[in-house]
Amino acid sequence: MAIRETLPRMQWRRIAAAFPLAAAAWLSAPLAQAAGEAPLLTPFSAAQGGEAPQPWRFTTLPNKAPTRFEVVQEDGKRVLKVDSDQSYGNLVHAAHLPLNNNATLAWRWRVDAFVQDADLRTRAGDDGAAKVCVFFDFPTDKLSVSERTRLALARKATGEEVPSEALCYVWDNKEAKGTALANAFTRRVRMFVLESGPASKPGTWVAERRNLLADYKRAFGDEAGDTVPDITAVAISADSDNTHGHGVAYFSDVELHGAPSTQEAASQTKD
């Protein structure tokens, strides 16, 4: 019997509230990147059909309608369409990488329909048509007792390695560009609003490139101090379950770039 079938519905609701990205932590074997090797994140454009290519995995929470992720043809290219209709869902790709100055994330996206009643500052409005999230393995012994307890409960209940920290880049309809805030349910998830409102011209794609170490320090510097965790996964996320709304967004291939830490590089050279 699945774990979710053995847990009371109220307990699942508490887990979902405490960890909005709990179901997204389907972490497979670490991937490596070097010159001439495959990209750290499998491109959506490599899909043979409508499903995102492995190891991208869809995850959701119990009793939620699933957000639809589909690879489609747009403007002559294969891209990911994300359709959220009173639903919740994440598309997750494991990728183990040191978080240093070389770690960058790049993608293009566009939003055709925003979740109209979304409000990132409230639990009732905690929805969004387009999010790109990065998971980190921050040491749990550095968390408060209450946060460690909730994280342990979520990991036990889902049977997955729920991330101890997640940073989500959001294209929102209300919050101003550049806004930084914590998730309304949990401070384990922090958010940066990269784009705000409709593009100047309908159907316009917007390119993003982020230095992940700089963004991590800005988002989690208050609790991390000198601790720098590794990157463990990247996720595309969209939800409209709280507002019962609808959102539509598109994503190009997501590119994760990086290099071994100084210590790892020295070890590889020695070998």
Q: How would you explain this protein's 3D organization?
A:
- The protein is of the alpha+beta class and 271 residues long.
- It has one domain (3-270): Galactose-binding domain-like (Jelly Rolls, Sandwich).
- The protein has five helices and 13 strands.
- The protein has helices at 3-6, 9-18, 145-158, 212-224, 262-270; strands at 57-59, 68-74, 77-85, 88-97, 104-113, 128-136, 165-172, 180-182, 189-196, 206-211, 231-239, 246-251, 255-257.
- The strands form two sheets. Strands 1-4-11-6-7-9-8 form a seven-stranded mixed sheet. Strands 2, 3, 5, 10, 12 and 13 form a six-stranded antiparallel sheet that branches.
- It is globular.
- The N and C termini lie far apart (47 Å).
- Residues 1-7, 22-36 and 262-269 have low confidence and may be disordered.
List the SSEs and their pairings.
Blueprint: H1 3-6, H2 9-18, E1 57-59, E2 68-74, E3 77-85, E4 88-97, E5 104-113, E6 128-136, H3 145-158, E7 165-172, E8 180-182, E9 189-196, E10 206-211, H4 212-224, E11 231-239, E12 246-251, E13 255-257, H5 262-270
Parallel strand pairs: 7-9
Antiparallel strand pairs: 1-4, 2-3, 3-12, 4-11, 5-10, 5-12, 5-13, 6-7, 6-11, 8-9
Helix pairs in contact: 2-3
